[in-house]
Amino acid sequence: MAANEWDPLLPERSRQTGRNYTGVLTKSIVYALTLLLFVIAFALTIASIALPSWISYHSTVPPFHYSLGLHRRCSSLTDTCEPFPQYEDCHGEDRYFCSMWRSVGFLMTFAIVLMSMAVVAYMVILSGGKRLRETGWTVLSLIIILSVAVQVASMALVAYLFDNDDRFSVGLEFGDAVASWKLDKSFTFCTVSWCISFFCAVTVVVAARILPSEGGYELIPDMAAASEAQN
Fold it and tell me: Which sequence ranges are marked TM in the entry (predicted)?
C-alpha cells in the first residue's frame, strides 16, 4: 500500500509528511460535550426528587391541586407540604404502597450516587492523559448505563402504582367537577434525564469505537521513507 493511501482520514499533508493529526472531532471533544449533556440530565434527576410532583391531580372548578412527591405531598387547601409517606400510610392495606413508594425514593437516591460517580469519572478522564481517554470509556459508559437502569426501574414502579393502586383508579369529585390523577413534572424530568444519559453513554461508546486515536497517526518509518523517496 502506498504511503499516501495509508489512512483516508488523514489530510494530504499529514499522509505525505507522517505528522500526527487529531482531526476536528476528537475523543476529548466528545467527552466534554457529553459531559455538558450529562450535567443537564443530572440536574433534571435532582429536580425530579426535589419537586413533589410525581403523581398529582388538578381541578379548576373549584380550584384545587394535590401532588405526591417521593418524600413530600402538597395540597393547595393548606398551601403546605408534609412528609410522605407518613406513619399511617404504611400500615394495613397501604403497607404495600408504602414499601413500593419508599423503594422508588431509594432507587432515585442511588441513581444520584451513580450519576455523581459518572461526573467524577468524566473529570478524571478529561484531566488525564491520552491513555485514560482511550480506555476510560468502558467504566464511564457502564456507570451511566447503571444509572439509566435504576431510573427506568424507578419510573416503572411509579407507573405500576399509578395503573394498579386503588387510590389512583378513580378521580376525586368536587361538586360537578371531577379531578383525575396524572403523572406529573417529576416523572417527565426523570424520563428526559435517563434518555439524555443513555444518549451520552451510546455516544461515548460509539466515539471510542469509531474515532481514531488522538495523535496516533504516525507513519511507520519505512513508509515515511518511501513517501520521501516518492517526493
Answer: 29-55, 104-125, 137-162, 191-211
Using CA atoms, how far apart are residues 132 and 115, in angstroms rounded to an integer? 19
Three-class SS of residue 149? helix
Q: What is the second-level CATH architecture of the domain 24-211?
A: Up-down Bundle (1.20)
Cα–Cα dist 26/172, whole Å: 56
- The rounded distance, in Å, linking the Cα atoms of 39 and 41 is 5
Give the closest residue to 7 by CA, choosing from 213, 228, 192.
213
Collect all residues with Cβ–Cβ distance below 8 Å to 175 and sequence separation of at least 6.
61, 62
| pLDDT at position 116 | 97
Q: What is the pLDDT of residues 186-231, one digit of tens each?
A: 999 999 999 999 999 999 999 998 888 766 444 445 554 555 556 5
Contact (CB, 8 A) for 112 and 147? no
pTM of this prediction?
0.79
Q: Which cell numbers in the block locate residue 136?
A: 476510560
Every domain of the chain and the residues it spans = 24-211
**Cα dihedral 138→143→146→150 (10° resolution):** -170
How many residues are recorded in the chain? 231
Contact yes or no for 73/66 (Cβ under 8 A): yes
